[in-house]
Amino acid sequence: MRFREVCPQVFMASRGGVNMYVIAHSDGTVLIDAGLPGGASALIAALARFPDLAGVVLTHGHYDHVGGAAVVARARGVPVWMHPDDAALLAEGRWRRAGRASPTLHGPLLKRLVADRYPDEVPALADVLPAQKAIPLAGGIEVIHCPGHSAGQVALVWREAGVVFAADVVMHILGLREPILYEDRAEGLASIRRLAEAAEGASLMVFGHGGPLRDPGPPIARFARRLEGVSSHGRDV
Ligand SMILES: [Zn+2]
Ligand SMILES: [Zn+2]
Fold first, then answer.
1. Domain that residue 37 falls in
2. Among all ligands shown, which has an atom nearest to the Cα of 207?
């Protein structure tokens, strides 16, 4: 695993189809998401080039995003932020809630092949700080609560460079796509609209799954409008 620069000061690493990010900043370098539990030692090694790591932000509580968090927090002695709605589960070493595959071509298959096969337990992590409005790292990161995929899902906006971390609010695999599964799709679609507003004028959007998207404002706005049209007619995408 290796962190590669996707824009100045923002680095991305991937393992098992899951992305992790670093914002390298003199005011406090931050890791965003910690990947699968099996990648924890590779993540620790990849983070060695960031000696001033000051904290970890988890975008939501799913198995593929929080797996390495407890190990990194312990090894580096740094605090972890996440939304309280998912922090309660992680404190108990759990992550799974009732959810349904998104009504898309890819949703049911990927849910069965990927999400349903993840174990129910993750390395537990308590004493998590609440990610609700802002994270005081990297000069300030805005938090946008985007429930639907997961109750405690957040997107992050780093205004200093115009970078939006969409996490699992949408995926970017062969185009913009709905997440594999939803706890509540109506909430999820409202969150995609909120994400589109946050992306107006942004220079880059990065995702939990899939590659970066430059100038994301227009495409994410189109995607949100298309979903709205489809869902109001009650049809699948
Ligand atoms: Zn997820
Ligand atoms: Zn994910």
1. 4-232
2. 2
